[in-house]
Amino acid sequence: MRIRIIGAGGVGGYLGARLAAAGEDVAFLARGAHLEAILREGLRILSARGDVRIFPARASADPGAIAPGDLVIVTVKNWDTDAAAQAAARIAGGDGEIVSFQNGVEAWDRIARAIGRPVLGGVAYITASIESPGVIRHAGSVERFELGAFDGRPSPAASYLLEACRRAGVGAAIPDDIGRAIWEKFVFLSAFSAMTALARLPIGPIRENPETRGLLERAMREAAAVGAARKAPLREDSIERQMALVDRLAPDAASSMLHDIVRGNRLESPWLCGAVARMGKELSVETPVQSFAAALLGLSAGGAATSPRG
Predict the structure, then answer these.
(1) Which pLDDT score is estimated for 307?
(2) How far is CA 292 from CA 62, 215, 262, 281, 305, in A?
(3) β-strands 172-173, 52-54: how paired?
(4) Which range marks the domain in which residue 187 is found?
């Protein structure tokens, strides 16, 4: 099966490189200095689970230069969703399936509306980011990809990717309810990304300090309350599950938002803590911790070029 990945950053670059190293037909849609480095020197993964270098790597900035795919994987940041949807429709053609592993809870509907057909849901549990052009750094050992159809229908593309991941040594699963998996990831990530970015620290010190651990859990409970108001299919013990995940992370595990704010990059906060605050306001659900985080991170959300100067 031909696998095409839109976005060769932490998630897409990592997954695509692992699959390509296992012999899968993979090509990337990428851009800028990262693309130039991939074409010049290949795509490298640095990970405790084993380093990988794909050279030559098939990549382009032009969707028209990439051969059509049977499965198109979208891993771009949320602000690029609309452009990625158009590229995905072009690369997938009429028969290929599209799956998004993006953050938040809104990208799937946006893509489906843009292309006029359903897409597969996806969740990526991995801490990875672009360390330098052409190089992806995987922090810690957590690595799991979940995907499936929102209506529970069998998907040949999802089944193929599951087996391809297993052949590549990548953790993967098709859960009973991908919508639930997406919301549970959102509950976790909206809090984890906000706390690590605001503190400018990885998870270790945050979870060990009683006050910041409490704030982290409160932020998760606010996101879960918003989900409950939207009738999201969250489990009763979802907070306990997400806090257990927090405790399994390596102490140096950090969100991509932490890396982005330190580097002066644009932030996904409007689609994470900002989305919790926005939806909470619409539904009359109190979200004080998430709203506070959204307000502060909003000062830097556009990147260094738009952040206030003292």
Answers:
(1) 53
(2) 40, 11, 19, 13, 22
(3) unpaired
(4) 180-298
Residue 151 located in a structural domain: yes
Q: Same domain, yes or no, for 145 and 223?
A: no
10-residue block means of pLDDT along the chain (310 residues)?
A: 96 98 97 97 96 97 95 97 95 92 96 94 92 92 92 94 97 96 96 97 97 98 98 94 92 90 95 98 98 97 67
Residue 268 has a pLDDT of 97
What pLDDT was estimated at residue 142?
82
- State the pTM of this model: 0.92
Q: What's the domain count of the chain?
A: 2
Q: Tell me which of 140, 175, 210 is where a domain ends.
A: 175
Task: Say yes or no: 74 and 207 in one domain.
Answer: no
CA distance 248 to 282: 34
Q: What is the identity of the amino acid at 268?
A: E
Residue 167 in contact with residue 161, Cβ under 8 Å? Answer: no
Amino acid 140: pLDDT: 75
Q: Tell me the residue length of the chain.
A: 310
Buried/exposed 189-200: b ≥16 CB within 10 Å, e otherwise = bbbbbbbbbbbe
> Could you tell me which of 282, 151, 297 has the C-alpha nearest to residue 226?
282
Look at residue 7 and tell me if it is in a domain: yes
We report the CATH number of the domain holding residue 249 as: 1.10.1040.10
E strand or H helix at 90: helix 81-92
